[in-house]
Amino acid sequence: MASITQDMKYRLSLIKYAQRFGVTKAAIRYHHNRQYIYRWLRRYDGSIESLRELSRKPHSHKNQHTANELKLIHDMRRRNPNAGLVVFWVKLRQRGYSRSITGLYRVLIKQSLIPKKPQNPKYIAKKYEQMEYPGQRVQIDVKFVPSSCLVGEASDKKFYQYTAIDEFSRFRYLAAFEEHSSYSASEFLKQVIKAFPFKIECVQTDNGQEFTKRLGTSKNPTLTLFQRTLKEQGIIHKMIRPYTPRHNGKVERSHRKDNEYFYAIAKFYSFNDFKLQLKKHNANYNNFPMRPLGWVSPRETLFNFLKHGVTYV
């Protein structure tokens, strides 16, 4: 039920005063003309609800849609239930409809004929695949060295950290490069193959230009130097879904740790200085216990598996 407003209470007081002392005195006391008071007296039926202000919305308009136009809209909507506003308007105009698209939109809203847009299919993340042995899959990525870390001779240069991490043992190999290219990625891959004491079956990367050309402008992309090296070594190349870095989660997380524990405090005066500090940082990483490994370091996890066939002793 609608609530009683202050205006309704005011009109009730006005009418009761007019009934008791007359319309003229009521007009003087309440500062209204006599016609206003007579109008509410005619409407008053003894209940305060009769003093509610009625809607002033017009019941019709000189330019409103005709019955034939409304029938055409309903018939066309029944034949084109999912057509968008513009397409639907064009189809109506082809059948003699002359109203504007905004006028059509208002009618569709009023008649509840706007089609419901189907929701986009929800993306269901694939369950993470646990690796069973070292080398089953290795994640590779490139990290740009923050410019705030470069001082002295290195202040106007750009350095890059190439990272490879084994998904099973978290054992990691880092290398410093002065170039961000497929050639550098290929050279890094050769270093990784020599550095890892196990055979690599699969390498997973993002869709960067240093790894693949599949997101480039070419209709028939060729293999990059990095991919040709993989093919020569008999290693499978797996690329993650575009713009989804979480699929390369282990290497991305390791880069976040690099930011927190290495780049936040390190300064590099030359490329050789960067290489030496990066090598020491990688050794610390591989020898640091990790919770996902049962508080065992990546190096020890790898050693236990290669020697004893288990991840712990």
- Tally of structural domains: 3
Envelope shape: elongated
The biggest beta sheet is recorded as: 5 strands, mixed
Estimate the helix proportion, in percent.
Answer: 40-55%
- Give helix and strand order, one letter per element, not per position: HHHHHHEEEHEHEHHH
Average pLDDT number: 92
The CATH topology of the largest domain corresponds to: Nucleotidyltransferase, domain 5
What would CATH call the class of the largest domain?
A: Alpha Beta
CATH architectural arrangement of the largest domain: 2-Layer Sandwich
Gyration radius (Cα, Å) is 38 Å
- Strand order, biggest sheet? 3-2-1-4-5
Low-confidence stretches: none
Q: What multimeric state do the chains show?
A: single chain
Spell out the CATH superfamily of the largest domain.
Ribonuclease H-like superfamily/Ribonuclease H
N-to-C span: 76 Å
SS strand fraction? 5-15%
User: Which structural class fits the helix and strand makeup?
Assistant: alpha/beta
Strand segment tally: 5
Q: Please, how many helices?
A: 11
